[in-house]
Amino acid sequence: MMKIIYFIAFILMFSCSRNVEDRCFANDYEQIFKSYTEKEPFTVKEILKHKPDYIEITDLKKYRTFKEDSIQLRHQDESEELSEKRWKIHEEEYEIFKAKFSDQFLFSHKQQTGNITYALGNNDLGSWLLKIENNKSYAYFLGLSFSHYYINDIQDKSIIENGFLQLQGSLVKIVKVAGLPGYDDYSAIGDGKLFKISLKELTRDSDDDGYNDIFEQSFGLNPNSKDTDGDGMSDFVDLNPMFASVKNKFTELYELLLPTYAHTTVDLKELHYTFTVFESDCDYFHQVSPDERILFIPESERRKTFYVNMTDVTRGNISKIRKDKANPDRFYISKSGSSFENDYAAEYKNGKWILKIIGGIII
Q: Residue 310: which residues within 8 A CB-CB, separation 6 or more?
């Protein structure tokens, strides 16, 4: 009887799963890009209910409101001369961090504790605690969703104290600004909060691969394996750490449409904390060999990690492929960003792809 049950379960699982054709190719009636649906912002109650266990949130009796801090941060009515002077002072203060981390972060809140120098770093993925000790650099992802957590630019106390990272700030919601595609503003829904994370919890790196457990859990990597995709390269070195790379004509098509960067003196392979994130279930897309670090998040909300489900970490995407019924070597694919979409005709000739823009939208 149990064998029959297992067999039926296997058949159901197999029949419900999509194959490569479904995951990578759009049919005639399917949109190649998923329609964007504005999510309802989380309430304070929902944020507190669903926050990760390692984050402690308490109410402050005295605090700087989100409005007060954000106005101070903008430096309104500041002269160009004063702005340049302030920026030069900032660059000199964080010179040691720029030397170690290049331009991977915006730096703030520097603190010296014994022989350790700390700072906060922010990039497209979120906030990190940066540490330089004995001339070695470390970055620890906080897992504080920038969609819901605002960290004050002005902190009344040290950010590192008694074995904890402690940050004053507010709970916020994203407000879309009409007429400015891709631009988000924020509104406070809960002022006067203290966010605390144990340094022991924050710096835990179970597989000793260079990424803290919070980062790996937030983006779907395996915190208990140095090599999530099993391709023989450590996640810290691997440019595509989630999936093993494979060479075929469709992975090459996706590689042609990956973001390209202007000439830089910095080796992109050394930018260990800079990732471009794509939302896709397509195997061919997953198997690319990129020139810079990429991560993938699943299309299904149910399969996403809590962090990426509540935080928009994608800055663009590449669509499924649509076949040309009249020509088996011609396909159609699109690439989108915050303010554009380009539609391409892709033809495979003599072992190479020829791309031609056939339409699109610029907002």
A: 42, 50, 145, 147, 148
Q: Which helix (H) or strand (E) holds 7?
A: helix 2-16
Which phi and psi (to 5°) does residue 200 adopt?
-60, -45
d(CA 220, CA 61): 37
Please give the backbone phi and psi of residue 51, each rounded to the nearest 5 degrees, phi first: -65, 150
Task: Please give the Cα distance from 255 to 246 (Å, whole number).
Answer: 11
pLDDT above 70 for 152: yes
Q: How far apart are CA 270 and CA 102, in angstroms?
A: 9
Could you tell me the sign of the dihedral formed by the alpha carbons of 264, 270, 274, 276, in that order?
A: positive
CB distance 234 to 210 below 8 Å:
yes
- Which residues, 6+ apart, have CB-to-CB distance to 334 below 8 Å? 32, 33, 318, 319, 341, 342, 343, 344, 360
Cα separation, 53 vs 1, in Å, equals 42
Tokens of 281: 């279930």
How far is CA 107 from each of CA 14, 98, 117, 203, 227, rounded to the nearest angstrom? 48, 8, 12, 19, 29
Integer Cα distance of 127 and 142 in angstroms: 6
**Cα–Cα distance measured from residue 88 to residue 334, given in angstroms and rounded to the nearest whole number:** 42
The sign of the dihedral angle between the CA atoms of 87, 111, 163, 237 is positive
**Overall residue count recorded for the chain in this entry:** 363
In this prediction, residues 68-76 reach a mean pLDDT of 75
Task: List, for residues 168-207, the tens digit of each pLDDT value.
Answer: 999 999 887 665 555 678 899 999 999 999 999 999 999 9
Q: Which two tokens stand for residue 90?
A: 């900032």
SS3 state at 95? helix
pTM reported for the whole predicted model:
0.90
